[in-house]
Design goal:
By secondary structure, the chain is an alpha+beta fold. 15% of the residues lie in helices and 37% in strands.
């Protein structure tokens, strides 16, 4: 999202990729799994997540990406996602807000940065797929696709995240393959190397400084 804001401000498509669809984001709504369409609820997303793979211009050069999610108890309400990353030795935090994108479509949102004026730049976002934990109390994996075409600039984002910091590679591979089966083009994914991150697994502090001590 930060990269998108910069692109719009500069009026350049240098970090954007035009698609044959004419820069439209129409396909997102149809790229949700049957489970998401019928059963998705934001409440089961709450808690700490570890990003495993991504396609996002804003994350180029970043590492150790985590999300902390809070959600309304109503599946039709908003989701707040705190993203914390490292750019070299420098920690960075941003909060993204997902609000329902009209209608009764589960898992279909508009995403924006929590900042003044951010409603002017919102990305259509679909929870492409989620899987339940073994005890069925929360989601264990999530895949999110986002897209925007504005002022001649087309930007697409993908997030593959898990509850486990170091899941088996087969888990991430299955997530990517599921996304492909739903019509999502992963493109050139970046992968998070958690072996280079010192943050203890499953830790999340309300203080950015405390959370990132020893990690960046």
């Amino acid at each position: 999202v930060a990269a998108l804001l910069a692109l719009v401000a500069l009026g350049t498509g240098a970090a954007a990729k035009e698609r044959e669809a004419g820069g439209r984001c129409d396909a997102l709504k149809d790229q949700r799994s049957e489970y998401v369409r019928a059963n998705f609820t934001g409440e089961l997303l709450e808690g700490l997540w570890f990003e495993q793979a991504y396609r996002d211009p804003a994350q180029v050069g970043s590492s150790c990406q985590t999300f902390n999610i809070t959600a309304s108890k109503d599946a039709g309400e908003s989701i707040s996602m705190d993203l914390r990353v490292c750019y070299g030795p420098v920690p960075f935090e941003i909060t993204e807000i997902y609000t329902p994108n009209g209608g009764e479509d589960r898992g279909y949102y508009l995403k924006r940065v929590k900042a003044p004026g951010s409603k002017l730049v919102q990305l259509e976002s679909s929870f492409v797929d989620v899987t339940l934990s073994d005890d069925n109390t929360r989601y264990a994996t999530m895949t999110i696709a986002s897209c925007i075409s504005k002022l001649g600039v087309h930007v697409e984002e993908l997030i593959f995240a898990t509850r486990e910091r170091d899941p088996p590679s087969s888990v991430v591979e299955a997530m990517v393959n599921k996304a492909k089966s739903l019509g999502v083009d992963p493109g050139n994914l970046g992968y998070v190397d958690w072996t280079k991150c010192k943050q203890p697994q499953n830790s999340w502090s309300s203080s950015l400084k405390e959370s990132l001590v020893g990690r960046c």
